[in-house]
Amino acid sequence: MERLLVTGGAGFIGSNFVHHLVEHTDLSVTVLDKLTYAASRESLAGLPEDRVQLVVGDIADEDTVDPLVAAHDAVVHYAAESHNDNSLHDPSPFIRTNILGTYTILEAVRKHDKRLHHVSTDEVYGDLELDDPKRFTEDTPYNPSSPYSASKAGSDHLVRAWVRSFGVRATVSNCSNNYGPWQHIEKFIPRQITNVIDGVRPKLYGSGENVRDWIHAEDHSSAVLTILEKGSIGETYLIGADGEKNNLEVVRLILTLMGRSEDDFDHVNDRAGHDLRYAIESGKLRQELGWQPQYQNFESGLADTIAWYQEHEDWWRPHKDATEAKYAQKGQ
Ligand code: NAD
Ligand code: TDX
């Protein structure tokens, strides 16, 4: 394998993966990205031009996708509409990009017999009770709650069907909540960090008891590369780093790390259909493929992330007012 096509490589996790590839492999990389509101050219700045190329285009456009897939050895598919709250306001781009876009990629890899890795989320499994000792495994039944997670579930089902019916050489991964640099400030952790920088109290949906299983984006990248290199065709791997925390704990930690009182936050309107708890059992990936997360300490990973947003205000500042205006309309 020499040439890799990475869809969504100008987004939060995809750009982290491109940096990871440059550092840890000899692959040449083409990023296919539509550069939606969630993308950032800056996240790819400084990478060697002889190894990383950006093509601006839509994964749902066959005329763009087909020749690009034909010219590469494998595809790692990150491109998606990714924010649950946006999917509650307008599901249409989620259906188009996440379902039709994945279908378009699948038809191209089928036609040209290319290896595909499809990046998905633990949200396809729905949620767990707070006191349930169970975690999600590769055998947990699909039960998505939001238009976003349902569209990702649909894309996973398409990949599995193309493997079984057409022999497409694909793997799937479902990862828990990522944090780290370059995450859009609409998402929970960077929204609260940038609120605190602005002297605004963090906003917790509902009671704040909802649990997310946090993993650093760099650990997600190393897991995806491991699956691409060593995963068995047709298999699904869950990616997680044993990082369960409720939202209240995370907000209190952000406030404390930023030198504010840990009670200096507001409860705001809850998200419709808000999933209670996600938790990943990642034993299959660890035991079968030998992967381990490197960021074992959430507090220090979060402190680094806070420092990154403090140092990169020029990157997020232009988006802050519009992002907060959208939340304000919903009382969030
Ligand atoms: P993001 O919203 O930050 O980035 C998505 C990228 O896809 C953007 O660069 C955007 O321009 C691009 N894109 C969107 N529509 C496109 C289209 N039609 N054609 C081409 N490019 C398009 O998202 P993210 O948080 O980096 O998530 C990346 C992937 O990882 C998604 O598939 C998501 O479901 C999955 N995932 C995310 C998390 C998380 O915590 N953020 C966890 C598990 C899985
Ligand atoms: O202001 C907020 N206050 C708040 O309490 C925001 C934006 C969120 N929340 C809560 C909702 C969730 O319980 O924080 C938690 C995390 O919210 P998000 O960052 O929106 O993430 P989530 O909905 O859990 O989904 C994320 O992880 C799985 C990604 O956005 C998805 O792309 C990924 O699939």
Automatic annotation (TrEMBL):
Entries under InterPro entries matching the protein? dTDP_Gluc_deHydtase, NAD(P)-bd_dom, NAD(P)-bd_dom_sf
Database matches in Pfam families? GDP_Man_Dehyd
Keyword NAD applies:
yes
Q: Which CDD domains would you find in this protein's record?
A: dTDP_GD_SDR_e
Q: Which cofactor does it need?
A: NAD(+)
A molecular function (GO) held by this record is: dTDP-glucose 4,6-dehydratase activity
User: Is NAD given among the entry's keywords?
Assistant: yes
Q: What class of enzyme is it?
A: lyase
Keywords (alphabetical) are: Lyase, NAD
Q: Name one GO biological process term.
A: nucleotide-sugar metabolic process
The reaction(s) this protein catalyses: dTDP-alpha-D-glucose = dTDP-4-dehydro-6-deoxy-alpha-D-glucose + H2O
Ranges that cross the membrane: none
EC number(s) per entry: 4.2.1.46
- Domain named NAD(P)-binding: residues: 5-303
Q: So what family is this one in?
A: Belongs to the NAD(P)-dependent epimerase/dehydratase family. dTDP-glucose dehydratase subfamily.
What NCBIfam families is this protein classified in? dTDP_gluc_dehyt
Q: What name has this protein been given in UniProt?
A: dTDP-glucose 4,6-dehydratase
- Species of origin: Nocardioides cavernae
